[in-house]
Every structure is written in structure tokens, then in C-alpha cells.
Design brief:
The chain is mainly alpha-helical and about 210 residues long. It has six helices and no strands. About 15% of the residues are buried. The model has no long low-confidence stretch (mean pLDDT about 80).
């Protein structure tokens, strides 16, 4: 027997001694990884809410509310805050519900469905944050400029009145700044949630191959 044949036979013997994973073993590993990922999505959303709340409390001092009052934006801002927190709490509830669903899943088809549901929920949440943030700052920016004369301690307010060209310049500059800010925000969510979503997608593909 030559050396090559000896190595082949030795390799086959070693392969026979290796543990073989069953369907249930593979499914169990994918299920545990998916459950852990969705739990992290839920935890991160709570941490994000806490940090944003602390930031809002830190920034919203007495001077901040006084300026909003002078600009007639205090009520609007409070309403936006309330609606924003209600929607955020709803998404956190959705993340928790997705985690509970995956944690109690007992078959591959349902697990695949719940993985897709979780990915859609996260993507919808990110889209909501970006769109709502863009709309909020557009409205606040417009109303601030529209009412900025109210906080100018001067007699000749005509100098602070925007004509058509001023509005064009303001719109262009403000749009660029807002676009950069939203891009940075999207990259942040892409980094935080994107890694978890890619792992979920990988688990979904493994489950799909397992079912085939």
C-alpha cells in the first residue's frame, strides 16, 4: 500500500469518528443564534431610547423652552415629542414581540417567517427615524425662519425679512446640512442594526438550505 492510499484510509477512519450533526442539532444552533440576535435588537432599541431621552433632557433647559415659546413652537415641539415617544415605544414593543415569537418557535418554517418579520420591523423603524427626523427639522427650520423676527430685539425688522432669493439660498444650504446629518444617522443605524440584520439573513439562508 502506497503512502497516498494509507493517508486516505486514515482520513476516512478519522471522519467516521467525528460527531455528525443531525437536523435537530443544526436547527437548534440556528434558533439559539437568531433568538440572541433579536434579543440584542430589543436591548439596543431600549438603550437608544434612554440615551435620546437623556440628551433631550440635557438640551431642553429653560432657555431652550423660552426660545421655543417666543417662536410659537413650544406646543408643536411638545406634540412632536409625545408622538415620537409613542411610536418609539410601539417599535420597542414590536422588537420584544418578535423576540418572544422566535424564542418560542419550534419549527424551521415559522422561524424563517419570524426572521423575515424581524428584518422588516427593523427596516421600517430605521425608515421611520430617518423620515420623521427629516420632516421635523424641515418644519422647525421653516417656522424658525418664518418667526425669527419675534426674537430680534431691533426696530427695523425689514432687514430680517426673507425674499424669494433668500428662501432659495436658505433651502439649498439647509437641505445640504440636513442631508449630511441624515446620511450620518443612516450610517449609524447601518452599523448598529446592519450587523445584526446580516446575521439574521445568514441564519435565514442556512434554514432555507436545511429545509431543502
Amino acid at each position: 500500500m502506497d503512502e497516498l492510499e494509507f493517508l486516505k484510509q486514515n482520513w476516512k477512519k478519522q471522519e467516521e469518528n467525528l460527531p455528525r450533526l443531525s437536523y435537530d442539532d443544526i436547527y437548534s444552533m440556528i434558533w439559539k443564534k437568531s433568538s440572541s440576535i433579536v434579543k440584542w435588537i430589543f436591548v439596543i432599541s431600549i438603550v437608544e431610547l434612554l440615551l435620546s431621552t437623556l440628551f433631550t433632557i440635557f438640551m431642553a433647559d429653560a432657555n431652550y423652552w423660552d426660545q421655543l415659546e417666543q417662536l410659537h413652537l413650544k406646543k408643536v415641539t411638545i406634540i412632536v415629542y409625545v408622538i415620537s415617544y409613542l411610536i418609539t415605544f410601539y417599535f420597542i414593543y414590536c422588537f420584544y414581540r418578535n423576540y418572544k415569537r422566535i424564542s418560542t418557535t419550534d419549527d424551521a418554517a415559522t422561524l424563517m417567517h419570524n426572521i423575515l418579520r424581524t428584518r422588516r420591523t427593523v427596516r421600517t423603524y430605521i425608515a421611520y427615524v430617518l423620515i420623521s427626523t427629516g420632516i421635523y427639522y424641515l418644519v422647525i427650520g421653516y417656522l424658525t425662519v418664518q418667526n425669527h423676527q419675534l426674537i430680534q430685539d431691533i426696530e427695523n425688522t425689514s432687514k430680517y425679512t426673507f425674499d424669494a432669493m433668500d428662501w432659495v439660498k436658505f433651502t439649498v444650504v439647509f437641505s445640504i446640512i440636513l442631508a449630511v446629518f441624515l446620511l450620518a444617522l443612516w450610517l449609524f443605524y447601518r452599523l448598529i442594526y446592519g450587523i445584526l440584520l446580516r446575521r439574521l439573513k445568514k441564519n435565514y439562508r442556512e434554514l432555507k438550505r436545511l429545509e431543502i
